[in-house]
Amino acid sequence: MENATVEILLIEDNMNDAELAIRAFRKGNINNSLIHLKNGADALEFLFGTGKFEGRDIKNKPKVILLDLKMPKVDGLEVLTKIKANEVTKAIPVVVLTSSNEHPDIERAYSLGANSYIVKPVEFDEFAKVVTDLGFYWLLKNQPPV
Amino acid sequence: MATRKKSVELINANEELAFQNEEKEKRAAELVIANKELAFQNGEEEKRIAELVIANKELAFQNEEKNKRAAELIITNKELVFQKEEKKKRAVELINSNKEVDELEKRVKERTEDLESFSYSVSHDLRTPLRVINGYANMLEEDYSSVLDAEGKRFLAEVRSNAKKMGVLIDDLLTFSRLGRQGIKKSRVDLNKLIETVLSDINQSFTHKAEIKFSNLLPAVADYNLLHQVFTNLLSNAIKYSSKREKPLIEIKSERKNGELIYSVSDNGVGFDMHYVHKLFGVFQRLHSNEEFYGTGVGLSIVHRIIHKHDGKVWAEGKEGEGATFFFSLPDRNDIKH
C-alpha cells in the first residue's frame, strides 16, 4: 500500500471538504489514484518516507498535491516550505486550497513556490468545476519533470 | 578895540552856544529816537517773553500729553502681553484638543478596523460550513432523489437555494469589508470599454431582456476594479428592478459639471418612493422584499463606499412605478496626464 502509485495527494483537515473534493474529482472523471491525509505532519511523513510512512519510496512522487492552508499544528504554508526546500519534492506541482481569494496567505504561498490556488466556492458545482479543471491541467497537460 | 574884540568874542561865544544848543537839540532828538527805539525794543521783548511763556506752556502741555500717551502705551503693552499669553494658552489648548481629536480618530479607526477584520473573519469562516451544507445537499439530490418524494425534493431545494443566498450575502459582506481595508489604485479609465466588460460579465451570469444604451462616456481617473464593481452593482440593480417591464430600458450617461464628472444609470423599472431615498445606500437596507426582488442590501452600500473612497458623492432620484436614476460624481482630474 505504501508504495502504490499515488497521483493525487490531498492534504485537508476538514473531512467534509475532503469528501467534496474527492467527489468533485470523480464527477469530473478524474479517477487517478488519490490519497487523502488529514494533517500537515502526516503529509510530510508521507512525502519524506518517515514516521508512519517509514520505508515508503519517496521517488514515487504524486503528480499533484492539493494543499489546504488552514490546518492545525503543521499548517499548509509550513508543508509548502518543506516541499519546496527539498530537491526531491520541489518539482511536484502544489495547488493551494483556500476558503477565500482574500486570504493574505495566498501571496505567501505563491512566494513560497505554490503553482496555483483554488478558492473553495460555496457552490458545489463551481467547486467541482475548478477542481476538475485544475486536476486535468496538472495531471494531463502538465507533465512534471521526472 | 578891546570892545570890538570883546564883541567878536561874544559873537563867537554866542555862535558856539548856538551851535552847542543845536547839537544838544540834535542829541536830544537823537535820544528821543533812541528812547523810542528802546521803548519799541522793550515792547518787542515783552511780546517775545509773552510768546515764550505761551510756547513754554504749550511744551509743558505737550509733555504732559506725551506722558499720558506713554502711560497709555504702557497699559496697551501690558494688554498686548496679556493677549499674547492668552493666545499662547489658547494655542496650547488647541494643540491639546487636537491631540484629543487625533486620539479619538485613532480609536475610531482602530475600532473600525477591528470590526472590519471581525466581519471579515466571520464571513470567511462562515463559508466553510455553508460550503458543506450546500455540497451535501447537492450529493443528496444527486444520489437519492429517486427515494425522495415531491415534498422531500422541495425541502431539499429550499435548503440549497437558501445556502446559495447565504453564499451571495457572505461574498457581498466580504467585498464590503475588503473595501474598508483596501487602498485604491488610480489610473485613467475608459468608461465605454469598462461598461462593455461589465455587460459581458453580466450577460454571462444571467439572462435579461433589457436594452442598455450608452455612448461617448467621459473617461475618469479611478481604480479600474472598483469602478467595475460600481457599474456591476448599478447595472445589475437596474436590470433587476426593470425586469418586470415589457421593454426594460437602461441608459448610462456622463457629463462634466462644476469641476466634477457625473455619471448616471437610469432605468424605467419599479422606481422608489423619494421618502425613503436616505435608506438606499445603507448596509442591509432594502426597499423591496425578497419575494418581489431578491437582494442582500449590500450592493448600493458597496457603491457608496467605493465612490466615497474616490472623494465623490452618490445620490438617487426616483418615483414609484416610473423608474430610478442613480448618480455618482468623481473629481474631474483631466489635468492629470496619463
TrEMBL record, chain A:
InterPro entries from the UniProt entry = CheY-like_superfamily, Sig_transdc_resp-reg_receiver, TCS_response_regulator
* Protein's GO biological process: phosphorelay signal transduction system
Sorted alphabetically, the keyword list is: Phosphoprotein
Task: Answer whether the UniProt record assigns the keyword Nucleotide-binding to this protein.
Answer: no
Q: Which residues form the Response regulatory domain?
A: 7-135
Modified residue annotations for 4-aspartylphosphate: 68
Query: Which PANTHER family does the entry mention?
Result: RESPONSE REGULATOR RCP1-RELATED (PTHR44520), TWO-COMPONENT SYSTEM REGULATORY PROTEIN (PTHR44520:SF1)
The protein in question is named Response regulator receiver domain-containing protein
Source organism:
Algoriphagus antarcticus
Automatic annotation (TrEMBL), chain B:
> Which Pfam families did the record assign?
HATPase_c, HisKA
Q: Name one GO biological process term.
A: osmosensory signaling via phosphorelay pathway
Gene Ontology MF annotations: phosphorelay response regulator activity; phosphorelay sensor kinase activity; protein kinase activator activity
The record's keywords, sorted A to Z, are: Kinase, Phosphoprotein, Transferase
Q: Which reaction does it catalyse?
A: ATP + protein L-histidine = ADP + protein N-phospho-L-histidine
What range(s) does the Histidine kinase domain occupy?
A: 121-334
Give the EC number(s) listed in the UniProt record: 2.7.13.3
* Name of the top EC class for this enzyme: transferase
Per its record, how is this protein called by name? Answer: histidine kinase
**Organism ancestry:** Bacteria, Pseudomonadati, Bacteroidota, Cytophagia, Cytophagales
